[in-house]
């Protein structure tokens, strides 16, 4: 029995279509269709019912899914057991967010390459909402994001927290002032993407104070927001690891604002599937990198 065919069967079953499975496996739709046809011919039964919008498991396919997942787990365990980490060859798709890119992603990659030098990493940077959706749909092996992602079949690993701070260019003259959140209504505000967790929290803070929020400009590129803040376009709420070098160099000033903005909770998220050993191991490395960079003892 060809394990690649079994893996294809599992992904078609999870995603509900040949096209989605082909995207996930970096294969053509025709290749996926041929693998399933070959597996069905070998087993002497139909594993899927073909529908206009995709496929669904047949009665036999439903019975076969769990043994197929266990077979893939056993195959992965076998590879790990007989080979050293240096010989582990695979490509892992990882989704992450701008905040982590500018904080500890380089440290994470260095640690992964040190332990698994033959492991390929396919990185995608987007918002937590988008990354969470992709890992829920099993289009990513591992997500590093603001979480948790509360979806069936996912495992969330706590990666600690990340402090966010208010900053502004020295031209604003706010660095030596003690400010309340209401004081920011006089300035344009630069921050995280619209409808992100930090954006919603910020609006909630203004709502709890009973005041209307200032004009807020959003972007999923925190690099763009920090550049605009340096150029004096507005006051910015950004992750501390991103702006710490700019504060140290004097390009930005740290502002003292009450109430303090809550820290961002970070998580590693992956499908809690039997064969998902590599994302599980990488989530441990991600926690080490995060806690090390944030100066927290594991």
Automatic annotation (TrEMBL):
PANTHER family, per database record: HTH-TYPE TRANSCRIPTIONAL REGULATOR, TRANSCRIPTIONAL REGULATORY PROTEIN
Family: Belongs to the LysR transcriptional regulatory family.
GO molecular function terms listed in the Swiss-Prot or TrEMBL record: DNA-binding transcription factor activity; transcription cis-regulatory region binding
Cytoplasm recorded as keyword: no
UniProt key word Glycoprotein: no
Keywords: DNA-binding, Plasmid, Transcription, Transcription regulation
Gene3D superfamilies: 3.40.190.290, Winged helix-like DNA-binding domain superfamily/Winged helix DNA-binding domain
InterPro entries assigned to the protein according to its UniProt record, in alphabetical order: LysR_HTH_N, LysR_subst-bd, WH-like_DNA-bd_sf, WH_DNA-bd_sf
HTH lysR-type domain: residues covered: 1-58
Source superkingdom: Bacteria
Pfam name, any one: LysR_substrate
Name of this chain's protein: DNA-binding transcriptional LysR family regulator
